[in-house]
Design goal:
A: mainly alpha; ABC transporter involved in vitamin B12 uptake, BtuC; two-stranded antiparallel sheet; 11 helices; globular; B: alpha/beta; six-stranded mixed sheet; four-stranded antiparallel sheet; 34% helix
């Protein structure tokens, strides 16, 4: 009868992963009004880079630092040299360019690493199980969850305790006003976009060993992340936390209780939330 | 001369809004731009701060042309902008809103000799200190207006552009806001204010421009404005 706690923990782990991906997506949307379709491709790149770095160096912990850093730089380049150039033409063009980037990344991944799943083999302490109140649970899943909590705490500290955080939150409210107060908004955009890509890449690194690394992994999490930011309210980080937990648990228990319905449940929840609160749980009323 | 606007033509999307607007503001002066709705008053302020880029003409601030610069660059030269509808950051607290006013990068100190700090703001406007931990969304209209002005002061501007500061406020609150602007003026900051209600503005502003259909039709002090009955009838009164 250990099923319920196990599925609850599975739900928490997936919620942590979803939050890492959707937080960047919702921040970028809140500030720049751009729905970044390439966001999940950054997640996938994180997983693939991690696979290669692990093969070369043999150190998984190194991947946790190097891969997000690489995606931070890649994200900034995409914002600075692609997104900013099409910004003047409007949102449709911005959406299209992120779609193009996602497409290029997905095809490049197939070309470089092959169109088949790759297994990331860990060794040592992370591969074991741990006894949690009489329940044996994989250490790696707990590790994923703690990584997500740790990153979220750092993010909350930065957003609520530093001047940079205040600027980012103010930009979600009103970018034009932030600009008129003397803040170099384009630089803030580039940095936040890069930061979102890094978070997404980090999620990819920790997801790789559990969820296998394959070219379809981006599309898979992108749908869930969209549902999270729609339910939570576009631009709201608090909303992203709550909605990640909801979707994580719903998918986990959905798979246990109604395996045939588990995908539909997520959309039913989204529809229900939108009927009651069209701007999402924590979204600003338009 | 602090600010000199020369024959600017500005467009909002494809419509031609400003047709050769010129005006000047001297150091330490409060100038009021009057006119009915939709005549281009707000567009004039937006053109100065750089939210709208004029297609022709020049805007000289302390002798340097601002046209073509980004709003944040213009703000850093020493211009504060207080837009219509207040536009405080709703999800930030009063205190955080004030912190946003401190400019990144170089802050123009100007020749005012005194710099605003958060303590000084709270001393000058105690109402804001009472509300320091409250979210911007939970402030009253009058408090929000005071906060936007104070937020701009945090950047130590030499000139403040302020758009309809008393709009939608009860008469007593509107008077508080205008008193606050007089205080700001006394501290040495020059002000360019857009208003619809000349009767309130005449008590605080020194010089007036009247706009209609994107052009300036009148320039003069309060006395000249009171004497120019025809102009007031044609361009201001309903």
């Amino acid at each position: 009868m250990g099923e319920i706690p196990v599925f609850f923990l599975h739900g928490l782990v997936y919620a942590g992963l979803l939050f890492l991906v959707s937080s960047g997506l919702t921040l970028v949307f809140g500030m720049m009004n751009v729905l970044n379709l390439a966001h999940a491709a950054f997640y996938m790149l994180g997983a693939y880079f991690s696979y290669s770095v692990l093969n070369i160096t043999g150190h998984f912990y190194l991947c946790l630092i190097i891969c997000p850093l690489f995606l931070f730089i890649l994200g900034m380049l995409v914002e600075r040299f692609l997104l900013r150039r099409v910004h003047v033409y409007g949102h449709v063009q911005e959406l299209l360019i992120t779609f193009g980037v996602a497409y290029i990344i997905t095809e490049s991944v197939k070309w470089i690493w092959g169109n088949y799943p790759l297994g990331v083999n860990l060794s040592g302490f992370l591969t074991g199980s741990v006894n949690l109140f009489g329940l044996f649970y994989p250490v790696y899943r707990l590790f994923m969850f703690f990584c997500a909590v740790f990153i979220s705490l750092i993010m909350a500290m930065v957003l609520y305790k530093t001047k940079i955080g205040i600027i980012v939150r103010a930009s979600v409210d009103d970018t034009e006003m932030v600009n008129a107060l003397g803040v170099n908004v384009p630089v803030v955009f580039t940095a936040v976009f890069g930061f979102g890509a890094a978070l997404s890449g980090f999620a990819g690194v920790i997801a790789g060993p559990l969820l296998t690394t394959y070219p379809g992994m981006a599309a898979e999490i992108l749908v869930d992340a969209f549902v999270v930011i729609v339910i939570g309210g576009m631009g709201s980080l608090g909303g992203a936390i709550v909605a990640s937990l909801m979707i994580g648990e719903l998918q986990s228990f959905g798979a246990l209780l109604f395996p045939k319905l588990s995908l539909a449940l997520m959309y039913m929840l989204m529809a229900a939330v939108l009927i009651i609160r069209p701007s999402g749980l924590f979204g600003e009323e338009q | 001369m602090l600010l000199q606007v020369n024959e600017i033509h500005s467009y909002y999307e494809k419509s031609h809004i400003l047709h050769g607007v010129s005006m000047r503001i001297e150091q330490g002066e409060m100038v009021c731009l009057l006119g009915r709705n939709g005549v281009g008053k707000s567009t004039t302020l937006k053109s100065v701060i750089g939210i709208i880029e004029p297609k022709q003409g020049s805007i000289l601030f302390k002798g340097k042309d601002l046209v073509g610069k980004a709003p944040y660059q213009i703000a850093r030269t020493g211009i504060g902008y207080v837009p219509e509808d207040r536009r405080i950051f709703k999800s930030l607290t009063t205190h955080e809103n004030l912190l946003m006013g401190i400019k990144g990068g170089k802050t123009a100190k100007g020749n005012l000799g005194q710099a605003w700090s958060i303590e000084k703001i709270y001393r000058a406007f105690p109402k804001l200190e009472e509300r320091r931990g409250n979210k911007g969304a939970h402030l009253s209209g009058g408090e929000q207006q005071m906060l936007t002005v104070a937020r701009t002061l945090m950047g130590n501007p030499e000139l403040i552009l302020i758009d309809e500061p008393t709009e939608g406020l009860a008469p007593l609150i509107a008077k508080d806001v205008l008193d606050m602007l007089s205080k700001v003026l006394e501290s040495g900051v020059s002000i360019l204010m857009v208003e619809q209600n000349y009767k309130a503005a005449i008590k605080v502003a020194g010089r007036f421009y009247i706009m209609s259909k994107g052009q300036i039709f009148f320039e003069g002090d309060g006395r000249a404005l009171m004497e120019a009955e025809d102009i007031r009838k044609n361009y201001l009164e309903v």
